[in-house]
Amino acid sequence: MALPLSHMLLLGCSERKLAMCILLLLMELFMEGAEAALSNQPDIQNHLELGKEFLTRGQLSDALTHYHAAVEGDPNNYLTLFKRGTVYLALGKTRFAIQDFSRVLDLKPDFTAARSQRGLVHMKSGDYENALIDFDVVLREESHNAIVNENYARLNPAKEQWQLVRHLMKHGDDQNAIGMITQLLEISPWSVELRQARSDAYLKVNDPLSAISDLRQVNRLSQDSTEGHYDIAQLLYKIGHATNALKDIRECLKLDPEHKLCFPFYKKLRKVEKQLSSAEQAKEENQANDCLTHAEAVLRLEPDETMIRYEAHKLLCSCYTTDEQYGKALSQCKLALDIMKDAQLYCDRADALLGSEMYDDAIHDFQAALDIDENSSRAKEGIQKAKKLQKQAERRDYYKILGVKRNASKQEIVKAYRKAAQKWHPDNFKDEEKKLAEKKFIDIAAAKEVLTDPEKRRQFDNGEDPLDPESNHHGFRGADPFAHFQHGSPFQFKFHFN
User: Fold this and answer.
1) Rounded Cα–Cα distance for residues 169 and 147 (Å)
2) Alpha carbons 12 and 480: distance in angstroms, whole number
């Protein structure tokens, strides 16, 4: 039986154009009056018409529903089976497509369109032996069929390449195996075996994200399975992606709520993911204490998985720095960096080193971040800031003068200023002590001026002293250091002397 033009077009369709090619095929079949073995039963005919209507709108799933009903009403109509098989093919349900094409050939062995399609599905599924058998039968009938000849010529080289791939993987040459499997997948994109093999190879060359991508395709081609979702969730968890792992384990439980592997893993994973997500959120909201609490909980819940612990150590590194607990921050940063080098993590540790006034080490860490990510603006700005702070360290530190943290509020700064000014007011001292007190008092007043002025404080935090006479800023220096205690003073002191 000769292949009509639209059947030949379908055989050569790319995957992206497959649905349109199917439409052309089925429209032709509907118009072929000579093929009218279709049932005259009104309900079956109605389902076929509705299937055609949905097909013309590209609604393949709805069309499939009506073809199901038509096949149930007349299970021996080879044309209806062929149409359903072709829609299965467009939906990527290859196993069901092959079943329908095989049933068609049982009913009508000389229907070469079905045999060509089945051979194509075998080839795209990586079943080269059965593809060869089907194409060989077609070519005996139609030796000049260009499309089938072209596909037939690709099969033996593909078989040989697959044998070579298995040899390479057996001997540990996974990187070359990956390249060759990728070539084979251009011929056989629906092959579960090829994608599973490439996923295994990706894991051996330490590329888990690519391995997971292939496993997702394996699971899709297998029409989803609890084992597939479980394996993907396990891999995601191992690389520290707890939130994505939780999504896959939930998909497993949708298929089997009491799954013996997925359910216990879900209970643990849900707790770990909740703590990690809460810590991340607290970090974003600058709630350091909450961040520390949740991240520490992750370490208690997960004593084994390295990358989950890495995520927790990384959060602790950042949040201890925010809380100005620099010693603890440096300890957590080191634990995280011992697991994996990361540009942002180096910057976090550098910030902790800046807080500890270890400027050379901070510059070294910012440079390490640039070695990983040469475009890191945070690292570039960090180096400049560290150099300015290093220079500034030789001068006055206004935060230390008032005894406040670098994130102190204006209210806290004013309160500390009043306390220090009262303590070090020169009227409290005599002789040499009075001279020392005058110097202290000048520094206290300067600290208050800088830290209560948003612009001057910003300059100071960036490593500049806005009151430095060598700079272009015009500030407190040179003015009367006791002006704050003259007219307009925010408070008055009463001093009593013996």
Assistant:
1) 33
2) 90
Length of the chain measured in residues: 498
User: Could you give the CA distance from residue 461 to residue 459 in angstroms, rounded to a whole number?
Assistant: 6
Q: How confident is the model at residue 471 (pLDDT cuts 50, 70, 90)?
A: low
* Tens of pLDDT, residues 119-147: 999 999 999 999 999 999 999 999 998 99
Contacts of 362 (CB under 8 A, 6+ apart): 350, 351, 353, 354, 382, 386
CB count within 10 Å of CB 331 equals 15
Chain-centre distance for alpha carbon 183: 26
Cα 1 to Cα 221: distance, rounded to the nearest angstrom:
32
> pLDDT of 211-259, one tens digit each?
999 999 999 888 778 999 999 999 999 999 999 999 999 999 999 999 9
**What's the pLDDT at 60?**
87
Dihedral sign of CA atoms 136, 138, 141, 142 in order: negative
C-alpha span between 208 and 348 (Å, rounded): 26
Phi-psi region of 368 (alpha: psi -120 to 50; beta: other; left: phi over 0): alpha
Mean pLDDT confidence for 44-53: 86
Find out whether 283 and 298 touch, Cβ atoms under 8 Å.
Answer: no
C-alpha to C-alpha distance for 353 and 341, rounded to whole angstroms: 17
